[in-house]
Write a structure and sequence with these properties.
The structure is a single chain. This protein is of the alpha+beta class. It is 44% helix and 18% strand. Strands 2-1-3 form a 3-stranded mixed beta sheet, covered by helices on one side.
Length: 101
């Protein structure tokens, strides 16, 4: 994601489409956790809200592709796991991680 952004664009769209293919083949009761993350800039409250928007954007995209929203669980992580110290590394902090459950 770009700085202060939560829309699913470009490379993120392609990655989510690949995850969609895996979800389609998984049993219908197999769920997915979507963990939203931010870089460390901004207040804790702001980053929690932004990370939730990012995870929700990914979940909404999957739902538009046909995945039952009941299988998707969003968790806002904020900046809690950020490791970056520069723009290049901060860009890796701005993400949504997927985890099967």
């Amino acid at each position: 994601f770009g700085f202060d952004e939560f829309s699913v664009e470009g490379e993120a769209r392609a990655t989510i489409e690949k995850n969609h293919e895996c979800l389609k083949q998984a049993p219908a009761d197999k769920g997915l956790m979507l963990y939203g993350h931010t870089d460390p800039r901004g207040t804790e409250e702001y980053n929690i809200a932004l990370s939730e928007k990012r995870a929700n954007a990914a979940a909404d995209f999957l739902a538009r592709l046909g995945i039952d929203p009941a299988r998707l669980n969003v968790v806002a992580k904020g900046e809690g796991e950020a490791a970056g110290t520069s723009e290049e590394s901060w860009s890796k902090d701005r993400r949504v991680d997927f985890e099967w459950k």
